[in-house]
Amino acid sequence: MAYPEMRMRRLRNNPVLRDMVRETKIGMDDLIYPMFVHYGENIKNEIASMPGQYQWSIDNLVPEVKRLSTLGVKAIILFGIPENKDEFGSDAYAEDGIVQKAIKAIKKSGSEMYVIGDVCLCEYTSHGHCGMLHGEKILNDATLPLLAKTAVAQAEAGVDMVAPSDMMDGRVEIIREALDHHGFDDVPIMSYAAKYASAYYGPFRQAADSAPAFGDRRSHQMDPANVEEALREVELDIDEGADIVMVKPAQAYMDVIWRVKDSYTMPVAAYAVSGEYSMIEAAAQNGWIDRDRVMYESLLGLKRAGADIILSYHTPMVAELISKGQWPPQ
Q1: Residues 56 and 207: beta-carbon distance below 8 Å
Q2: Which of 166, 259, 279, 285 is the right S-S partner for 120, CB 3.0 to 4.6 Å?
Q3: Known catalytic residue: 248?
Q4: Domains of the chain: total
Q5: CB < 8 Å & 24+ apart, contacts of 287-294
Q6: Which of 85, 248, 261, 303 is labelled catalytic?
Q7: What pLDDT score does 218 carry?
Q8: What is the pLDDT of residues 103-125, one digit of tens each?
Q9: Residue 11 lies in a domain
């Protein structure tokens, strides 16, 4: 059947019908909100390169988490900015580390928020790298026990899920073994399986105070040119015990998301990173784009590409639009 018998516009003429036949939908079940927890009290520092995003001290973080939960946000992932850093990143796995204290405070408050802990060392090391060093070389195997300790410390604090983002070889296996050994076999692992050495991370490094003191992270994060390598990374993490695999960044790597989803029967997460967020916000502030509609299209694109879960700094904005009956934006 062809025109004039077939008229595709019939399904587009009415907004109710458009809603009925919409193939891809984005809601709060799809989204995780990244948050930054800072040492100290009464802190709510807006991140200059990420308008609308903040570093929170724990006393301000807890009521904000409650507000977000009331708004409809269901899951957050925490990144810590400690008071003191050292070459071993010891605050990452200390019992009274900043993220562990934040997890305990959120859980003690009675919040039903699902809390995920980022597992890495870069925010906690004095040199800003993701692992232990020998000179300027990042040591893979010497880093693994510290990542395992970090995951266990978060689990002991009450975290619901851990998310290793370091890209050290073998870290999922050692974290799974450590969690199971300490009785946390029910704590899932969301692995940053295909994390690229991307230029999109710039604003995050200001937000988390995690810029490397020297060099870069290309020795362990992936080359942006590679896709087949991403599939090998994902397969290794699945074999080691990952429950969810992640592609990071998101928008420029939609082909990778698609390939991963097409290749494995696993939940796939995509991290819409700081640079992606900041570009949308900057363009919107200059009046160049409709922020809400571009945000919506960006999230739709990731869902169409195969992402089951999206980590997005826009999560609260989506929740607010939903609460006002303005989602999707017109």
Answers
A1: no
A2: 166
A3: yes
A4: 1
A5: 290/329, 292/317, 292/321, 292/326, 292/329, 293/329
A6: 248
A7: 76
A8: 999 999 999 999 999 999 988 99
A9: no
Q: pLDDT tens digits for 267-283?
A: 999 999 999 999 999 99
We report the CATH number of the domain holding residue 172 as 3.20.20.70
For residue 315, the SS3 value is: helix
- For 214: left if phi > 0, alpha if psi spans -120 to 50, otherwise beta; the answer is beta
- The SS3 of residue 108 is helix
Query: Does an H or E element contain 190, and which?
Result: strand 190-195
Given 101, 149, 195, 303, the catalytic residue: 195
Query: Quick one: pLDDT at residue 328?
Result: 95
Confidence grade of residue 208 (pLDDT, cut at 50, 70, 90): low
DSSP one-letter code for 250: -
Q: Is 322 left (phi over 0), alpha (psi -120 to 50) or beta?
A: alpha
Matching residue, tokens 């570093």:
55
Quick check: is 7 in a domain? no
Give yes or no for a contact between 225 and 210, defined as CB atoms under 8 angstroms apart.
Answer: no
In a domain, 18, yes or no: no
Peptide bond preceding 249 in cis form (omega within 30 of 0): yes
